[in-house]
Amino acid sequence: MLAQELPNAKKSGPDEYFMVGFQLKNTLSEHGYVARGVCRTDSTGHLVEVVERTKIEKTADGAKFTDETGAVMKLTGEESVSMNMWGFTPTLFGHLEEQFSRFLENNISNLKSEFFIPTAVSTLINSGKAKVKVLPSRDLWFGVTYKEDKPVVVESIRSLVKKGVYPEKVTL
Predict the structure, then answer these.
(1) Domain boundaries defined on the chain
(2) Residues 56, 33: contact at Cβ < 8 Å?
(3) Chain Cα centroid distance, residue 97
(4) For 101-112, what is each residue's pLDDT tens digit?
(5) Residue 172: pLDDT above 80?
(6) What is the mean pLDDT of the chain?
(7) CA–CA dist 38, 20 (Å, integer)
């Protein structure tokens, strides 16, 4: 999806980038909490914001998360979430360089601070310097968050190889 859209990025006005938005229900672990960037889009499918939510867990009718105050909030499972699958053009590098310099100045003594791509992108969106088109995906996202996830991931990859979606052997 990203490879198809990137050549069509607008060359005038705000920089245009892309993000694959997965359905929350297709990214959850059966074995515990996960963290996901819950997305809000406008009527044209452009990203308005990504809010990092931790302690998201699957429920019988969707999902729930615990916010920073300890309150439990319900999610439907249909929400679009960022799994940090972005499509950027080279214009991003100048923006990141500018933001990273400020980040270093503000966090010089905080060794645990992190420069997050979604935060940098949100800054660009809020300043009007960029727009991000969300490309909806119904594909499953699988990863190993808990050791119990490993057999499911191994079987998922085997299934994709068997269907011809992935090659059996990757060569470089």
Answers:
(1) 2-162
(2) yes
(3) 21
(4) 999 999 999 988
(5) no
(6) 92
(7) 12
